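Example 312, ligand TUI.
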Amino acid sequence: MTALKTRITDLLGIEYPIIQGGMAWIAESTLASAVTNAGGLGLIAGGSAPIDYLRDQIRKTKAAVDGKPFGVNIMLMSPNAEDLAQLVIDEKVPVVTTGAGNPGKFMAAWKDAGVKVIPVIPSVGLAKRMEKAGADAVVAEGTESGGHIGENTTMCLVPQVADAVDIPVIAAGGIADGRGVAASFMLGAEGVQVGTRFLASQECQIHPTYKELVVKAKDTDNIVTGRTTGHPCRNVKTKFSKRLASGEMSGTITPEEFEEITLGSLRKAVQDGNLEEGSFLCGLIAGMVNEVKPCKEIIEEMFAQAEKLLGR
Ligand code: TUI
C-alpha cells in the first residue's frame, strides 16, 4: 500500500494518487485498464471519436478492471461532447475529466448520476468557478503539458490553485518520475496527472514511430504550434511541426490554412506514424522519458521514489 494516501486516493478509491492523461486518439481501453489495474486511474479519451466506438471502449475497460475505477475524458470542443456527457451517465462511468472548455452545463446531470467530476483547468479563475459548480477536484495543468495548453506553468499554477480552492488539486504538466510527484505534493497537490510518461508504456497503442520520437526526444525537441489560432498545442519537434510554427509566425500560413493543414494530423501521427503530416502531441518532459516500460512498473517506480523523497 502506498503511504501517499490523500483526498484523491479516497475520492477515487485508488491505491496511488495518479490519473492518466485523457490523450485524444491515444487513451483507449488497453492503456486505461493497464493504469487502473496498476493502482492508478486509467482514462479513455473521448476526443472526437464516434459514440458507438466509445461505448465499446468503456465496456472493454469495465470487463478488464474487475470493478476497479476508471474514467472518461471529454474534450469539450469536440462535436460529440454532448452525446458523450450522456453516455458516461448511461454507462455508469465512475469518473469524468474534462478539457478545452468549461463543463458547467453538464455538471448538474453528472452530479445527480453520482459521476465524480474533475475538470482540467489552466487558470485560478476557472478552478474557482469549477469548485462553485460542484467539481470534486481539479487538475491544474501547466503549459509543460502535451496537446492543448494554457499559459501558466505547473510550478506557478499549482500552488495558486491550491490556495484558491478547498477541493483537492491534481498537478499536471512536466511530471514523469518520483521527483515530479514529490515536487507536486510540495506545491500543494494531492495527486498527479501523467500523460507523456504513459506514451512510452508497453500498453500504449500508438504507432511505434510515435513512441520512438518520445523516447528519443531531447529537452529541446519540443515546439508549440497553433498560437495564431487561439488553440496552442505542444508537440514533438519534427520537420512538419517546425514548418507549421515558422509559417504561422511569419504569416505565410494563415490561421485558416493552419486549421486545414492540421485537420486529422493527430490521427496521422497516432495510427500511421506519419512524419510528413502528423502532429505528435507530447509534453515538455519527453526529454526525460527514455525507456518503454509496462504501466505497472512506471507507477511503482514513480511512487517508490516519491515516497522516499517525501520521507514517508
Ligand atoms: O484539453 C487538453 N489537452 C488537449 S485537448 C486536445 S484535442 C485538440 N484538438 C484540436 C484543438 C485543440 C485540442 C489535445 N490536448 N488539456 C486540458 C486543457 N484545458 N488545457 C487547456 C484547457 C482549457 C482551456 C480553456 C480549459 C478550459 C478553458 O476554458 C475556457 C472557458 O470556456 O472558460
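Summary: The mean pLDDT is 97.
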